[in-house]
Amino acid sequence: MKALVKEKAEPGLWLADVPEPVLGPGEVLIRVLRTGICGTDLHIRNFDAWARQTLRVPLVIGHEFCGEVVEVAPGVEDITPGDLVSGEGHLVCGKCRNCMAGRRHLCRDTVGLGVNRDGAFAEYLTLPASNVWVHRVPVELDVAAIFDPFGNAVHTALTFPMVGEDVLITGAGPIGLMAAAMATHVGARNVVVTDVSPERLELARKLGVALALNVAETPVSEGMRLLGMREGFDVGLEMSGNPRALREMIANMAHGGKIAMLGLPAEEFAVDFATIVTSMITVKGIYGREMYETWYAMSVLLEKGLDLSPVITDRFSYRDFDAAFDTAASGKTGKIILDWTA
Ligand SMILES: NC(=O)c1ccc[n+]([C@@H]2O[C@H](COP(=O)([O-])OP(=O)(O)OC[C@H]3O[C@@H](n4cnc5c(N)ncnc54)[C@H](O)[C@@H]3O)[C@@H](O)[C@H]2O)c1
Ligand SMILES: [Zn+2]
Ligand SMILES: [Zn+2]
User: Fold this and answer.
1) What integer pLDDT is reported at residue 342 of this predicted model?
2) Is 66 labelled as part of a ligand binding site?
3) Which of 66, 114, 69 is nearest to 89 (CA)?
4) Which strand ranges, in their side-by-side order, compose the sheet holding 2-6?
5) How far is ligand 1, taken at its centre, from the CA of residue 80, in Å?
6) Atom of ligand 1 at shortest distance to CA of 39?
7) CA-to-CA dists, residue 245 to 52, 87, 130, 214, angstroms
8) Keywords of this protein's UniProt record, alphabetized (predicted)?
9) pLDDT value at position 258?
10) Taking the domains of the chain in order of start, what are their residue ranges?
11) Is 195 within any annotated ligand binding site?
């Protein structure tokens, strides 16, 4: 079968012929239909310091996908050939304290699909049945393909109540955009999205946010003034990984404000802890998705009309993966989809 492979320990990706995966005990064989390109995949293509440290080549990459079930191992229940599925890309150990207690998203020994084991950028993949999410609510294939990052957005956005609150989202990448769609959907008052990319801020405007602010030109405090806000943001969703964004967020939170932090900084950095203390701010780190409460929330949010279509901006055949990756790396677009059937 065709697969996108990190064949060599050097920058680049290769479209290669590899053996089809063999169905193991408790597993499901899936024919991949669509995949989404994640920042992680760009790091792998570039072979940056993180990728050099983490990857063992050769590796089939990719973790954002949807597909059709082809075969299930004996004993697997409730998943049937023909089902449309997405997959949870974090394979948990099942043995640590948190796994045993049912808090699988807090597993201390997670294996990443397309990072620590062969992934989804291929015509077929196998996954443990416990990592397969069956779409029982009808969903478009392109949206089903991005349930993994959508789950990052939903997990972060549902961490603190947002109804009627003023919400600051720093970073209008695909995940920040999905979180912005969520915040307006669930009834936040002012949703302010910041970025330094005019193109991405334009995408945020299409989602109907109160304000899409270019922080290279206008400080967040000025945005608050434009909206008539006086006391600061109640909820902050950090989705850029950029130190300046978190610092500016902390400086503009209401007393008692809550920050959920998804953005992954590349290195350590300093923040104003005195303000965190005296403004009594809560900061919570968010990683992955809750299994499977986040997945449930995603499906029912879509069922209730949450519209992610403005977030998906470009589509390519998997054969044109290099152009697709270049487009994703431009930092100007929303989510990029690869079609594995065309
Ligand atoms: N914790 C997790 O489980 C998890 C999972 C996926 C992604 N992530 C991280 O979440 C973040 C968002 O993911 P994404 O795919 O949307 O990333 P992305 O890199 O596409 O988007 C980040 C955006 O932040 C913008 N930005 C840069 N400086 C800024 C500033 N000072 N203020 C506001 N915005 C600024 C960039 O222009 C970019 O548009 C990334 O940091 C990613 O590494 C974390
Ligand atoms: Zn991802
Ligand atoms: Zn575990």
Assistant:
1) 87
2) no
3) 114
4) 14-17, 2-6, 59-60
5) 36
6) 15
7) 27, 31, 37, 11
8) Cytoplasm, Metal-binding, NAD, Oxidoreductase, Zinc
9) 98
10) 2-146+308-339, 154-285
11) yes
In words, the CATH class of domain 154-285 is alpha beta
Ligand 1 center to 127 CA (angstroms): 28
Q: What is the pLDDT of residue 116?
A: 97
Ligand 2 centroid vs 39 CA: distance in angstroms? 6
Bridge-based pairing state of the strands 253-261 and 124-128: unpaired
The DSSP bridge pattern shows strands 282-285 and 312-317 to be unpaired
Q: Give me the residue label for tokens 């065709």.
A: 2
For residues 177 and 169, give the distance between their C-alpha atoms in angstroms, rounded to a whole number: 9
Burial call 201-235: b when 16+ CB within 10 Å, e when fewer: bebbeebebbbbbebeeeebeebbeeeebeebbbb
Helix (H) or strand (E) holding 95: none
For the chain, give the longest Cα–Cα distance: 62
Which positions ≥6 away from 142 have C-beta within 8 Å? 34, 312, 315, 337
Distance CA(239)–CA(262), nearest Å, equals 6
For atom 25 of ligand 1, the residue with the nearest CA is: 171
* Averaged pLDDT, groups of 10, the chain, 342 residues long: 98 98 97 98 97 96 98 97 98 98 97 98 98 96 98 98 98 98 97 98 97 98 98 98 98 98 96 98 98 97 96 98 98 98 92
Q: Give the Cα separation of 163 and 179 in Å (integer).
A: 14
Residue nearest to atom 3 of ligand 1 (CA): 287
* Nearest ligand atom owner, CA of 97: 3
CATH of 2-146+308-339, one of 3.40.630.10, 3.90.400.10, 2.40.128.50, 3.90.180.10: 3.90.180.10
Q: Which residues surround ligand 1 with Cβ inside 6 Å? A: 39, 152, 170-176, 194-197, 200, 215, 239-242, 244-245, 262-264, 286-288, 331
Range list of β-strands (E), the chain: 2-6, 14-17, 27-36, 59-60, 64-72, 84-87, 90-91, 111-112, 124-128, 132-134, 167-170, 191-195, 211-214, 233-238, 253-261, 282-285, 312-317, 335-339
Is 44 annotated as belonging to a binding site? Answer: no
User: What are the residue numbers of the active site?
Assistant: 40, 43
Q: Probe ligand 1: pick from 240, 261, 287, 332, max atoms within 8 Å of CB?
A: 240
